[in-house]
Amino acid sequence: MSISPELYEAITRIVEQKISEIKVTRENFNKLTSIVTELSNNILKLAEAQVKTEERVASLEETVKKLIEAQVVTEDSLAKLAERVTRLEEAVERLAEAQKRTEDSLAKLAERVT
Q: Residue by residue, what is the 3-state secondary structure of the chain?
């Protein structure tokens, strides 16, 4: 059984078209595979960066905690220092009053002697 040239050409065209479609599909599949691989690599890089970020945040949290503790100590020390300054001011005021009384007494004594 022989086929006509027209039928042969029609079959050839259909086969070539199907091969071309399969080729495009294969190319698209290869591109998609490449894109998925690239995305997978990028996700791994992002995950690694996220781990580093979380480590940095944890470190910063620890640093902030230490700073808060140091701030509490500083505020306590400052409050104690303010109390001491207040006591010193009161002592200086008492000394000034005593000095004034001493000067007054000395002046009275000097008047009596002269």
A: CCCCHHHHHHHHHHHHHHHHHHHHHHHHHHHHHHHHHHHHHHHHHHHHHHHHHHHHHHHHHHHHHHHHHHHHHHHHHHHHHHHHHHHHHHHHHHHHHHHHHHHHHHHHHHHHHC
- d(CA 22, CA 8) in angstroms, rounded, equals 21
Q: What is the CA radius of gyration of the chain?
A: 48
What is the tens place of the pLDDT at every residue in 52-64? 999 999 999 999 9
What pLDDT digit, counting tens, does each position of 13-54 carry?
A: 999 998 888 877 888 889 999 999 999 999 999 999 999 999
* CB neighbours of residue 12 within 10 Å: 10
